[in-house]
Amino acid sequence: MAHGGEKAIKAALLANGVIAVMKLVGAIMSGSASMLAEFKHSVADASNALFLLAGVRQARRSPDIRFQFGHGKRSFFWSFVAAMAMLSIGGAFSIYGGISKIMHPEPLEHVSLNLSIIGFSILFEIYSLYTAILGICVEGGQPTTGFKALPVAINLLGEAVPTTRFIFFEDTAALLGLLIAGGAIGLSFVTDNTVFDGIASILIGVILLAIGFYSARENMDSITGEAMDPELVLEVGDFVKTLPEVADVHRVKSMKVGPRDYLLNIIVEGNKNLTLAQVDDINLAIKLKIEEQFKEIKHTHVTMIEDNKVDDWEAYSAGLPKEEC
Fold it and tell me: What pTM does this model have?
């Protein structure tokens, strides 16, 4: 994972740790359900940062006899754990707290303190989110700073590794949750009706459930063997077919083995009169050329079969999802 991504995780850990303490003080002193929901949100966020940091560092381990394709999938596992924590600690508990507040209303106290805490929390979250935005730009190969970094990061969001993308969505949800909590506390104070505070807690919980579910599903796909994007498959196949040793590309299969690493299995067609030694040399040459051209492909297995005089690559590539190519 890029250094910018780990920096984003550390920034999120620091910010959410400080914010959680401030929110807990505000929730205890005021009795605000939305502030308590925000405290649970920050605890979940801080826990998630620890999970993500563990995943990033474990993913860097070198391949060994038990994990011959490396430990890259550990980052997906810990990102999945973080998503489940967001679903349970953040989402479900916040919704429960909001319902309890509506059913058993209690007056709010120390409203100005809560609003001050929310204001400081927003500043910390902006810092964390900005660090994540910079990390996305670095991972996408377009390092950018200042206000122009946001549109660049949004454009490169699909290129970011899951952990950095998770921090981005998490911080965005946190900022939205803070605004909702602040508005609800203000409305509850002005109208002397704490139902707004309870509704805000439920809304915050729904936001966390949505992001947690999305992140869990995304990481589940990576853990269970998601293939390369069809666009990249096309690029690889088209490149290999141009090599002089290759008559045709029969089939391409791939699997994600790390945040930006893939395992590739490609079957090519060649002259039937080639000797076994020649086939071995050609397969090795193709492997080296693929890994030189496509840095994200770390493990390549090439198999050569006899040319069947049919354009298999055209038929195979035509079956790839058009909306993604």
Answer: 0.73
